[in-house]
Amino acid sequence: MPRLSVVTGIALVEARRFLAKKSTLFVLALFVLPVLVAAALKHYVSVPHSPRFWVLLAGIDVSPELQGVTGSSLAVGLAGLAAWWWLVVSLYGGDLFASDRASGLTRLVLSRPVTRLEYVLGKLLALLAFLALAGIIGLYSIYAASWILAGRQAEPLWPLVTGLLLAVGSVPLAALSALMGFRSSKPLVGIISGIGIYFVASMIISFGSFLIIMAHGGSLEETALRLATLIPLDAGKSLAEIVYSYHAHGPVVHLVQTGHEEVRIAGRTIALSTTVNLGSLIPLLLVSLPAWIIATVILLYKIVDRADL
After folding, report:
1. Are the C-beta atoms of residues 54 and 163 closer than 8 Å to each other?
2. Which of 57, 208, 233, 306 would disulfide-bridge 77, Cβ 3.0–4.6 Å?
3. Mean pLDDT lowest for which of 42-51, 117-126, 206-215, 274-283?
4. What is the β-pairing status of strands 252-254 and 275-277?
């Protein structure tokens, strides 16, 4: 059994290493930029009072209210951490083990009374804690920027909840990035692999959703969310989106009406649903995400355990 004191000790050392990384400056910039951009745009952009404007800018609602949104105000969201979360996960996941193995530090650590399981768990604990803290601060930054643009915001505790959900949902992508970095002993390979996995998974979800609705019809949003729960490599976005939307709208979400309930694709008329049944997605999510987390962490441990250091 791993010793808690050893795991937490490794996690604390790794946390200090995270803070010393140059990429942390990029994360800090994403904390500050939304507020600065919102303050700069305040006198040039007119946004009606919307107490849930932060949710739209963070992109975590299945059915956001689009009234009063302009390209300029959306720039606030693009300047925030939520828009670049996948990159942050890849940056820190890809270098979780790579630099240590390349420098020989992994061999040095494991020459002491530290097991490989304790080493892996300590590193992952530090990464999860860092991502949780970054997610929470980043979403509160978007919350503050939304307050500047659209007035007093509701649900002050939900940036905290959503930040934790983003961190937990990011574990599969982070673990696979770390695995690729460890195998190559090159942080850049791990980082690029993480980015590649994220975009490939996103493309599979997007194109798969279109193929499914062409064959069976239905809600494109619900189909995409269903695929995202089966392939949870979107850096936690689907987890945060499903949980928040269920909280805000209940088990059935009525989508924003666009006036186009039918579309023509490849010469066929496809009837689109205007609702999303989140109630049917929750059980799938509760099975799929833990299975992916356990599988990717075990795979990462097995690779580290069998490696010749």
Report:
1. no
2. 57
3. 42-51
4. antiparallel
